Structure formats: C-alpha cells, structure tokens
Amino acid sequence: MKLSVISLFFLAIFLRTSSLIQGVDFEDGPPENEYPNNEYEEIATLEPEDAESNVTLQNDEIFKGNESIHVELPETTTESNIRRSFGNGKAKSPELDPDECGDPPAVTHAKVTSERQAKYRENAKVTYNCEFGFIVAGPMQFSECLRSEETEELYWTDPGNLCAPRSCGDPGLVSNAHRLGFVFTFPNKVSYECDDGYKLRGFGSRYCQASGTWSGSLPTCEPVFCNPPSDPKNGKVSYSSLKFGSELRYECDPGFNLKEGKGRICSENGTWVGEEPICKEAQCEPPVAPEFGSVQVLGNGVASMALYKCEDNFVLVGSATSRCLDIGVWTFPTPKCLEPCSVPKVAHGKIGRYVGSYGRNKFQELPEGAKTENNEKLYLTCESKYEPFGTTMMEEEITCNLGEWSRIPRCEPAKCRGPPPPTDNADMRSVNRTHKGGVVYLCKGYFKKTKFGNVTCSFGTWKGDTPVCKDTKCYLEKLSFTGLETKGLKNVYYRNQVFTATCKSGYNATKENNRITCVEGEWKGHLPPCLA
Question: In this UniProt entry, which cysteines form S-S bonds (predicted)?
C-alpha cells in the first residue's frame, strides 16, 4: 500500500501515547508566526520499502506532555521526516474525515468487544463488555455512529455508565468484635477487631473479589484466659474464673497477715498484672497509750496482752485489757481516759443526788465543781416559781456520759399549767402558757368588747383583768311605758334598728316624736306618753 498523507496523519496520532497531540501540520515546516521560539529535533524517518509496503518507523519515541509532532512531506521524495517540537507554540489540530466518527467512546471498567475497524462510518456499531469484577448496570451496552439532523455531523451515541462494581453481599459479623468498613463491593475490604479480653483467631481482613465472593472465611474472637496462679508462701489463692478481668483473692494461713500488694487481675494479653501479696508472720502494731493514761504490754507477738491505766481523777472508758489476735489486730481499740464530770452552776436551781437506805428519800445537794463518776445520775431541782428547762417535770435527771452531761441543766420561769380566767360572752382564741405569755379573747356573736383586758402568765400564775363583752341587742320587754302597745311585736331589735311606738286602745298619743333606735344594746330617743 502506498504512503499517503492520511497514513502519515494516523501514524502521528499513534506516536502520541502519553499526551494529547497539540497539532499536526503537513506544510513545509511550521509557520514562524504560529510557532515562535520553537526548536526542532529530528527523531525518526519514515521510508516505504516499496510501493505495496506499509509505513515503518525506524526509531521508537515516546512523547511527553506539552509536546507536539511535525511531519514534513516533500513532494519529490517518498521519505518523510518526523520532528519533535519544544516550547509553548501550538500546532493546528487535524480535521477528521466528515464521513468518520473516530474512535468509539471509552467506558470506565469496560472494553469494546466488537472487531476494531480502521474507520468507523455512519451506522457503525460497537458493543461493550464489563471488566472482570464489574457487572452491567445500565440499559445500553453499545454505542452507534449516527449523523446529527441539525449539524449533519457524525457522533457516537452515549453508552452511559454501563459497569458497576460487583457486590459480595454482607460479609457477616463476628461475636465479641467490631467490624471496620461498610462498602461491600469489589475491590473493597472489611476488617475485624476483637473487643478487649478477646483475641483474633484467623485472618482479620476479608476482600471482596472480582468473582463476587469474599476471600477467606470469618475469623473468631476467643476469650483471653490467664494461666492458673500458684499459691503464695504461707497462704492460698482463690478465683472464680481465669478469664480477662478476673481478680485473684489471697488468704494467709493462721498466724500470717497479708502485706504489700493489692491483688492481681487477668489482663487483656493473658497475663496476671499487679503485685502479688506476701504473707508475713502476724504481728500486732504496738499499742498506743491513751491521753492522760498509760499502757503495759505483757508478752510478744500473737496472744500478747496490753494493760491500760488512767491517771488519778480520770475515768477509763473502754476495755482496760486487749489481746493480740493471730490476724495481727488487737481485740479492743485503745480506751479513753476522761476527766469526771463536774457539777455545773445552775441559776435558780441546785444539783444533787438522793441518798438513803431506800433510794430517793433524801436529796443531797452537791457543790459547784464536785466530781462525779462516769454514768452517774444526778438530779436538778429548781427554786419556787421556776422549773427545769424543756420538761414538764418538777425535776430533771442528768447523766455523766464520757465526761459530758447528757443535758445542760437549766432552770426557767415556770409555765402556767392551769386554765386562764374566763370571761362572759367571749371565747379564748390563743393561749401562751410560757412566762410573760398572754391570752387572746374574742367576743361572741352580737357582743361587743367594751373593756379591753390583759391576762398574762407570770411565773406559773395567770394575772390581769379579762375583757368585758356587752350585748349589742335591744329588747322591747325592757321598755316600761304605760299604755304602750307591744302585743304582736318582736321582742329583739339589733344595732341601728328603729321601733315605732303606738298606744293601746283607750290611750291617746301626744303629737311628739314616737320613734326610738337600738344603739349598742340600749334604746336611744324619747317616747311620748300615752294619755288615758
């Protein structure tokens, strides 16, 4: 086949494998005005072996980005030089044959399965197949070379996004583990990580394969176990489980105590962590002497005795002896040495005890500051018109308890125990029986207080005058008037009500005013006489 301009054109496109061809020109060299400052380097020569041969390239060359090629085709020779141009000049783009569509459109993850043609003309059709690991996702699997009705130019129909990654489905979950990764299509992967206290058995990752299956199999997460521990010297160790997080319990033999170490726990890597306790021979700490007292120790180690004693005039509260047990502790805590209670001074009262063969038959007063024994009971009595504070009894019992009195003795003015004095036509609304407390009186119904009283409690006795409540109603029967007609009339008249007088038959009223008014229980006004 003879070398032609079109053949050289397609050869030039073939040589641009790593970048877009910026331009191809078949004139005698590039015009200066279109390629300023360009440099050229001869890289290959095309020579026809004979009239029927194909064009061959003597030197292989790879073109990089921002490069273009220039083809020189002298009219008097069959040899063409291919040059590479450098710089920022542009070459003219070749124009396709208007009766061709060019190469079929590329589809991601798909390849053309139709036989490739040198030229694709109108109505040419190519089909696609998805690459391994991808499946058909669109309605079309082909592209067709058609002519536009508007521009009459040829174009390829859009094949669409035909291929989608193949799904492997859910790879599954693993007990006591969490899964990383949530895309289950080729070529993604998921990973599994065991929870604390569990270790992985198998592979921790699975890959979605092109075949639509997951690689390998699901791993498992097995519990972490620690090895059985050994007993400490002079002691024993116990446990309920050897799994992760389990704790060991240590116990020493009689006569030995746990020292150092706070226990051990099974860690996530299957080892016991923490300091192992040690069983040491039991020894009680040296006893401490109480304040205002002393201690004496008899013997050594287990079963030794501690004897406690207080100074003179101090009372020992607690156990006077204590023994060292085989667990290294004393049977009783350190006692206290307390100063005896002192009899306090009480205003308007006295403190003492009852003495005699029959108990409380004679009261013996104790002077202020006198000492008493622990738990001893004394009694408070108050002067006349006074009583113990906070009680209704006439005397109060107080107890010496660890150097302090159970209550602070105090005498206060006596309360009024009896009822307050009453008053006619009134109710008592409130009564305060304490010293200087008072009584509030309220008149009943239509009674009015005409005299204010003041009743108060004074050292157990009610004193003062009660108020006076007077009736505010008027009574017709109390009128004494000759010839006055009262038959059929009401007897009771209330505040500000008016009575109009009339004379009986046979009596004549004078021309004076015959009306009277009820005012605060009394008739006000003047009735004229009824004359016979």
Answer: 194-221, 252-279, 310-337, 503-530
